[in-house]
Amino acid sequence: MKVSLEEINPTKKRLIVEMTSEEVGPRMEKAFKDASNSVRIPGFRPGKAPRRVIESFYGEKIKEDLSRNLVTESLPKAIEELQVRPLTMPVLEKSFFSGTRNFNYTAIMDVYPSFVIGDYKGIEIEKQTVTVSDEDVDRQINYIRESHGKLNSIEDSRPSQKGDFLLIEYQGFEDEKPLMDMNSSNLLLHLGSAEFHPSFDDALLGLKKGEKKEFTVEFENTFNRPAFAGKKVLFKIEVQDVKELQLAQLDDEFVKGLNAEIKTVDYFRAAVKKEMLEQAEKRAEAQAKRAVIEKICEGVDLALPDILVEAENSSAVEEILSNITRNGATLEKVGVSREKLSEEMRPLSEKRVKEMLVIEEIASRENIDVDQEEVDHEFAMIAASTGQDAAEIKKYYAQGGMLGAFTRKLREGKTLNYLLQHAKIHEVKNADSAEGTVVTSQ
Hints:
By secondary structure, the chain is α+β, with helices and mostly antiparallel strands. The protein is built from twelve helices and twelve strands. A hairpin with a 3-residue loop joins strand 3 and strand 4. 15% of the residues are buried.
């Protein structure tokens, strides 16, 4: 068997396989002999029909079956001999018998690109020093108290002020026409949060329950709701109620209600600080890992396989569409097409694919892998955090064909940990600081 490779582009190859009559001939004879014994041809007993008769009746079918078997058997050997790494199963382009029972075929396949990686150990990066002040803890505790607080209507009919909650009915108009997606009969708005638009908040300051007002908001071209970006909208509103938030009382009873294991306010403060430190460290570590792989990728020049970029881009677009749907909107409502969304996401998808390929190469070089015990442990961790059964989670991934991607994600995480352990880390007080202590993790 003679095999060769023809380059279509750096990540797409044509596999050419040529099999001689010495290899194919005996298989052809056996195929016709087996057919002679199994098929029924009028005027001939089983096994007695001449070869030319069998060929006239069943020749094409016999050759078609033999062709399929020859490709199936020889393809893995051809790939191994050429030492290529297919990204997908090769697609048969053409196959044919020629000459005295020679058999040739070609197949198209996407392959991993060849590229050179420089030294990926000792990469210098900055990592933010993690600190949590008493003021940070106080703010977090106040957030918790707010989430367990009560909204009470203001009794003295005072004007609304920053921090109040207004229950309003409103309608937006453009060119005196009501906008379908710019209205509500009971919107609860937190003044000062600018959760809708700063100008909208400002216009509501000082209003009392029962008051009405008309005002105009000019939305920026960069407004986060594309359907309204660049528009000038007239709003007509009526204040249905003005409420203020009464924070939950911070005492031992309150913290016990949050967690039975927490007995006192002091213990609660310590637990909140510990959680904040852990979360801040996770964020700082994630940023450091991002910095490491970005620096490594800066020095790598590689051709990106279209099939991987398209798959990554499609996944990213689907995730955005899912989020839009969950929020009760549609592409039409947010004023963007699927094609435009795909176009905007493509640079990020290309960046992600490049990083995945580089991480995969490093993992292979360093023999970084994930065993079944690590996979099961990860499922157990997910089960513990979600309250679900680990076996059921694993079954869900298996049935959805997602176990491979799940394992690859774990391998990627291990590889990033490895790179961070072998990096030269400059501890800095904040992300913008250029000063700090060098910590070499090697």
